């Protein structure tokens, strides 16, 4: 479907093909940053590649231009204290533009794809979202707290928590769409058992709360996306 392809292009461009160094460079130089314009060009290129139809250039132009405007306004307006707020506002505006473009052009453009059916494309998009994008979203949420001091002297492997989170979300998603809710409960129990020793030794209430919040958010998002996959296709067709 058109809307899934547009969201897929957005996820790839904003989360997978935009290094952290680019984000920092844009925040530092704002509209003077060449990375801002390169980022928008990558989005436009992805849209052409994924839609694979030059006749859909109005959609690509609207989404690409709006992406530049939204990102530029965010860079100008956001401050260090409002960075978390503007991250979510930025993503919301991008999605709203995609939804608006979809509803405007849906009656004029053939959205059937002979190679990738709707279900498979949605499956790929859901799994993709549960990896790096959700990791970045959760990291942004936890900017509110200074977590490093809770784990001082007991640091984990670099990015280990990130990859563990990705794997657990993908597993929960698979269990949900296969209707194996008991496996989700088993996974939660297993994680609790592994974490019990760390929490008992730390005797740190804040660390316990941090782990509990992170687990609930991670599992909650995976379950929500699983339900969206199961029941979302009829809603957007």
Order of helices and strands: HHHHHHHHHH
The rough form would be described as: flat
Task: Tell me what portion of residues adopts beta-strand conformation.
Answer: under 5%
Indicate the mean pLDDT.
Answer: 84
How many distinct helices? 10
Annotation, overall tally of beta strands: 0
Number of domains: 2
Oligomer state equals single chain
Class from secondary-structure proportions: mainly alpha
* Structural Rg: 20 Å
| First and last CA, distance | 8 Å
Which parts are unreliable, with pLDDT below 50 for 5 consecutive residues or more? 109-115
Q: Into which percent range does the helicity of residues fall?
A: over 70%
Secondary-structure topology with pairs:
Layout: H1 2-16, H2 20-29, H3 34-51, H4 57-77, H5 83-105, H6 118-129, H7 132-141, H8 160-177, H9 181-202, H10 205-236
Brief digest:
Helices cover 76% and strands 0% of the residues. With 237 residues, it is mainly alpha-helical.
List keywords for this structure.
mainly alpha; 237 residues; 0% strand; 10 helices
Structure in words:
The protein is built from ten helices and no strands. It has two domains: 2-113; 144-230. With 237 residues, the chain is mainly alpha-helical. It is 76% helix and 0% strand. Helix 1 runs antiparallel to helix 3 (34-51) and helix 8 runs antiparallel to helix 9.
